[in-house]
């Protein structure tokens, strides 16, 4: 029961509003053990009570036992309003009524005791109809537990907190709220919580769109083959694309913070500096080719273009460099140029070979008729002349290889046998014996290749001749099958080739030899290429040269 004084004190209209309710919901207190019957009476307490007008009032409370039957007792509570402290929310309401943000006041059970008029405009709910309701019921289910936990922590820690969450409007859709929770503390006790919320839906949606766009851009950057980097005005990398790992072998994070000139060929650094100055001045730059060293020390040819990133003042704070690996393209262009050279050469050779061979045959025949009848000094001259004629015939024969088109004839050949036949040919010509060069063949298991054996033998003999004439005393031929390819590496310990000249090997009329015309490796390269293979050269002066040949085991025509 509750007398009229109690009803007046609690701002209640009738006794029915309090009968049957739990005393805990009226009292701001974390410990209700004072109401247990096993403790002595009377008890005098100071408590803070919640009254129906939306205020907290400090009360002086006296608890006395009330006899009821013989076995049970009820507690009779005498309440008197304290004149010392009366907690009112009028000052908070006055501020809240004139702010554009939503302001709510919650009790410690998380129920709304006040909402500002802005609450109606933002959520669509009436600010008065929601008094006594919990705002957590309108929080999105995915964030509800987290927000409720934050509310409890705010009360326990008595510290302001900031959260963002989705809140359900009266129409059923959700908006994003940025909310500040502020505890109201009196004498170390939290009385209520002021909640200030702002609709940040537009900002959150913009952030989500930005994230999606950034994700799309990152997906593009992560899968693009070009090298993309962002460099500041001081030439320091601030971003590099994942393609740096694929093309150059460097982890992107290992490049960040380093100079743009890192790993750029020293001969190209001045060109890059001049290009950047042009970019700063004209806000654009022409494409420029430069060389960069990859993680394995190989030179990669790149073609890049720079684009400025301007600040609000129109000044270039950063610039973007987009570069493309041109190494293979340039090799292909050079191969095409060489092929065109060979074609022109072949046309020329086809026209003059017949005219050269006819007089050579006549001269050689008459020389053979004369020499048996002369045993003097002329015989020595005739021998030298015959050697030179044979050399001219050999050159003409090699010219003819370049002149005639290659056929698609293929025969399954034992590679070890083909190598041995090539070595025997050099022995019969006296080339191996003259230099006392030792040839070693390394092969784990028998290997077979579909090829034109005469042409492949010609290519191999040319490579071996070059090694022998480079004063090699040891030549190693290693053969293995790998990734559907036959890989053959011919390594010698000869004089080696300078790096500047290494790139010209295989080009027509380039030779390191006094008597050579530079067709041996050219012919070998063309033979390998027409077998859909590839030939590479690696050399170091004073240590020797390695010629790598890769031929497909199966050719689809």
TrEMBL record:
PAS domain segment(s): 88-158, 213-283
Entry superkingdom: Bacteria
GO molecular function, one term: ATP binding
Keywords: ATP-binding, Kinase, Nucleotide-binding, Phosphoprotein, Transferase, Two-component regulatory system
PAC domain span: 161-212, 286-338
Catalytic reaction equation(s): ATP + protein L-histidine = ADP + protein N-phospho-L-histidine
Stretches of the chain forming a coiled coil according to its record: none
InterPro entries xrefs: HATPase_C_sf (IPR036890), HATPase_dom (IPR003594), His_kinase_dom (IPR005467), HisK_dim/P_dom (IPR003661), HisK_dim/P_sf (IPR036097), PAC (IPR001610), PAS (IPR000014), PAS-assoc_C (IPR000700)
Histidine kinase domain boundaries: 351-555
The enzyme's E.C. designation: 2.7.13.3
Keyword Nucleotide-binding: yes
Keyword flag Transferase: yes
Any Gene Ontology biological process: regulation of DNA-templated transcription
NCBIfam families listed in its UniProt record: sensory_box (TIGR00229)
Protein name, UniProt field: histidine kinase
């Amino acid at each position: 029961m509750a007398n009229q004084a109690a009803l007046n004190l609690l701002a209640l209209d009738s006794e029915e509003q309090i009968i049957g309710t739990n005393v805990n919901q009226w009292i701001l207190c974390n410990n209700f053990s004072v109401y247990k019957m096993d403790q002595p009476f009377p008890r005098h307490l100071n408590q803070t009570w919640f009254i129906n007008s939306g205020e907290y009032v400090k009360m002086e409370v006296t608890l006395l036992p009330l006899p009821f039957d013989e076995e049970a007792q009820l507690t009779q509570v005498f309440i008197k309003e304290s004149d010392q402290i009366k907690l009112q929310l009028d000052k908070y309401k006055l501020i809240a009524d004139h702010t554009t943000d939503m302001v709510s006041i919650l009790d410690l059970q998380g129920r709304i005791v006040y909402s500002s008029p802005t609450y109606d405009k933002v959520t669509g709910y009436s600010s008065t109809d929601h008094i006594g309701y919990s705002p957590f019921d309108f929080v999105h289910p995915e964030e509800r537990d987290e927000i409720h936990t934050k509310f409890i922590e705010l009360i326990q820690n008595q510290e302001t907190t900031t959260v963002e969450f989705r809140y359900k409007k009266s129409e059923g859709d959700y908006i994003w709220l940025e909310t500040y929770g502020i505890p109201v503390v009196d004498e170390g006790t939290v009385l209520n919580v002021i909640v200030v919320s702002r609709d940040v839906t537009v900002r959150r949606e913009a952030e989500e769109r930005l994230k999606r766009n950034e994700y799309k851009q990152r997906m593009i950057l992560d899968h693009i083959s070009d090298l993309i980097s962002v460099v500041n005005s001081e030439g320091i990398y601030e971003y590099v694309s994942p393609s740096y790992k694929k093309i150059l072998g460097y982890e992107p994070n290992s490049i960040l913070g380093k100079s743009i000139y890192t790993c750029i060929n020293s001969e190209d650094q001045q060109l890059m500096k001049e290009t950047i100055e042009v970019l700063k001045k004209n806000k654009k730059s022409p494409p420029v080719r430069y060389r960069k060293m990859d993680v394995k020390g190989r030179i990669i040819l790149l073609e890049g273009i720079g684009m400025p990133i301007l600040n609000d003042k129109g000044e270039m704070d950063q610039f973007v460099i987009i570069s493309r690996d041109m190494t293979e393209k340039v090799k292909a262009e050079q191969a095409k140029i060489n092929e065109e050279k060979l074609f022109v050469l072949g046309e020329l050779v086809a026209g003059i070979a017949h005219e050269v061979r006819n007089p050579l045959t006549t001269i050689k025949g008459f020389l053979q008729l004369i020499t048996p009848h002369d045993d003097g000094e002329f015989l020595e001259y005739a021998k030298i002349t015959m050697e030179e004629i044979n050399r001219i015939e050999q050159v003409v024969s090699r010219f003819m290889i370049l002149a005639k088109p290659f056929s698609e004839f293929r025969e399954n050949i034992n590679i070890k046998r083909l190598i041995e036949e090539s070595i025997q040919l050099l022995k019969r010509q006296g080339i191996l014996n003259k230099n006392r060069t030792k040839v070693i063949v390394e092969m784990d298991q028998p290997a077979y290749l579909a090829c034109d054996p005469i042409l492949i033998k010609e290519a191999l003999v040319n490579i071996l001749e070059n090694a022998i004439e480079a004063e090699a005393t040891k030549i190693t031929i290693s053969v293995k099958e790998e990734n559907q390819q036959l890989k053959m590496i011919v390594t010698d310990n000869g004089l080696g080739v300078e790096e500047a000249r290494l790139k010209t090997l295989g080009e027509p009329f380039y030779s390191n030899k006094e008597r050579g015309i530079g067709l041996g490796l050219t012919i070998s390269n063309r033979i390998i290429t027409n077998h859909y293979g590839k030939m590479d050269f690696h050399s170091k002066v004073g240590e020797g040269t390695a010629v790598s040949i890769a031929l497909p085991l199966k050719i689809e025509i």
